[in-house]
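Teaching assistant here, posting this on the class forum so everyone can see the example we discussed in section. The complex has two components, and the goal was to see what a joint structure prediction looks like when all of them are supplied at once.
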Amino acid sequence: MKESYTLSASLMQVSLGGILSACSYFLTMEDQTQVVYFPAILLVYAPLVYLLNRLFLRREHTVIAWILWNAVLCALLVGSVAVVCSGWPSGGVLPVLLFTGLATLRGAQLCHNPPKLSAAILWLEISVVVLAVFMGIWATTEGSLVWCSPVALGAGAALLAVISHRMNGQMGGREWLLLMLAFALMGGVLWLLVNFLAAPTGQGVVFVWGGFLAILNSIGGQIQRFLAFLTSFLKPEHYEEVEMADLSGMNMDTSANDTMAASFGRLLAIVVVAAVIAAVIAALIVFGRIKLGHSRVQMAPKKARKQKRPSLLAGIKKMLEHLVACLTLRRVMWTARNTELGTYYALVRLCRHTALRQQPGDTPGAFLTRLEDACSEQETAEALADLRLRVDKVLYSGQEASSQFPGRKSLKQNIKRQIKHNLTESTRN
Amino acid sequence: MKGKLVANRSSYLVNLPVLAVCLILGVLMALWGLRLLAAVLLFYVLLGGLARIWGVLSANRLEIQLTGDSAGAFPGETLTFHLRVKNEKFLPLLWAEVFFPLEKRLCLTPEEMRPPEDWEKPALEEGNSSLEQVGEARLPSFLWYEDRTVEFHWQANRRGIYSTQGWRLRTGDGFGLSQVEHPLTARHALRLAVYPKLVEVSPELFLRNQWNADTGARGVMEDPTVIRSTRAYQSTDSVKRINWRMVARGLPVTVNVYEEILPRSVGFLFDGESFAEQESEDALEDALSILASELVRLEEEQVEAALCLPRGQNGGAFTHFGGGDLESLLFALAGYEPEIERKDQAGNPIPRSAVFDLPAILEGGQRVGHFYYITYSTQSIAAPELLEELGPELVTILTVEEDSSYGEFEVLCLNGLREGGGAV
């Protein structure tokens, strides 16, 4: 199997860089004037050293040359730290050398021995534990949250490394989209959990309920205003007289009336324009479907793709069909639960995951006979024989099913016991 | 189909105790006001829980069918399989792979192999599979209700039988945290044979007896297509022989008497046990190659070939008379392995003996013109009683080593059958 490890290994290196960055911060936590460059650069350096090693080993080299190459890479980073930080960070040169050396060593090792799935999973587990530990430290010390971001980034990279390893680096758009959806779902649930369910009283669910009520009130208010606006145009027949009569007595604001009329005109214009656009679109759709005359040339069918992938809509349709079929089956079984056929279906369902299950092509008679043969209890075997005769009569001689099949409950219980007994025996053997 | 969670290939994050601890800690942290830490821990719970549910459900309602273009191949040829996977659910499978344990001697190998991982070895050992290499193939992702067929090309390397019963489909959640695997059910398993290697051989030795017609009354049989005469029915007559046309006309019940013919036929008795004592396996493989090649050549010459193999590692004795079924003869040769050396209570090795199905040979042998007993040497013959029963007139011994004689039996060199292998 051609494995594609590059992405997986690079992401593992990002994860290592994140952990080393966090460790570096942990060692120099008391120093308030530390430079961001050194620990942050490890996030870039760790995957880069792996990729550079991959490039280096594309051609044949001696081990000495390989070691020198890694030493040069390591020295370059240490040098850049010295230049950028104008000296060494507060922890001294030792942490810089140690963490750079570790990242280089791991990068070179991953290049020589491609990571196995178990290693990727182990790295993910280490990353999540480290993230939890750092979060705990941050929560108790109330340090800067920025310093937790490298290790969080590292944990995310480790998770992506496992995903990439499982999929052998062959992830298409759909696969990424599905993963994003899953992450979004988890994020949403998490947000709900932390912000509402686990929030103090008055802030969580109560807050949501209050917000929900406020939204409802706001919508109700808007509807009320709109209705008031509409009813203001319904003038009574003798409005003018009333208006004229009361004109002297009322202190009417004519400018307000003008504004109202103008806004109504605008609204009307918008509605008319929208209706026209909708009509044009509908006409285009309708006329686009109607065909006139005879087509002279028969278009050749397009070459079918080798394996057409089902669309999301087709998937949803099938799922709904399956759901409907399941519900129908449940309904039928519930309706006929007391009859011979209902008892027979119940037995088929009981045995579906056992060795006695109904095989493809098995008639009801054949299935019940097999069940009867496997039964060690005389009473149950007799009841099964009776059921077989009744089912055959109902199915093949047109006899109507009786509303009650006597002993159905005890029969089901006995068969359940028998299945359990058979399972125990097979486990023992 | 229901999958089983493989702990060795799944993360601890999907482990139920780990999930429970994370959940408890998450709730406690939330109550203590450490909301970010609670968020992280609850994220682990959600991630692990979702991965576990997705993983376990991914193997549900998954239908697998395996078909092959042919049941056997000669070394050097390629066998093609078609694996049809139907994902009969809405939940997509973002990754899936098929794991193939290989036969101990790697008779049939996939395009790409890898050494097995430590956790895979116990199951391989139990299944008597190769511990050196295993096969694995990545399948494409499966969307909702997707039906896909994947083709595999395997190389036939050396003689042997391979069963696909140990094949496992591995899949899991999209995050890659859990893995479930499901073995291919026995009813979907295929048994494939890699026949012995074909070599250039001459069939003249076996045609000689047919030309000379020196088989006496042996090998004579009735030809049911030619009716010589009819006679009155006797109570010992088979019902199959009754002439039903005459019965239908209301005439007395008569039976058909068929014409007797002498079909061209030859029988092989392969004494595999005589090869077991030899240090090199090549002698057995060479002998089987020559025998398989002769069977193919005799089929071309329309000579019926019978084959008798003694009891071996893989089952009881094989006896086939009647001809016309070259594939089953080659299949038997592909699967033959001499018995494992047995020891008595004192730890001394029990002398080997080739256990043939003697009654079947004596009964079926009536239809065979001449038998050829293939052994390593006359000193290592493992079924002398069979030779005595059949007699020197009916049997010729073919040996790998050039031997002088064995009683009154005609002894010839097996390697002389090779094309250009010298006089027989």
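For the discussion questions: Residues 40 and 355 of chain A are 60 Å apart (CA to CA). The first helix of chain A runs from residue 6 to 27. Think about how each of these relates to the inputs above.
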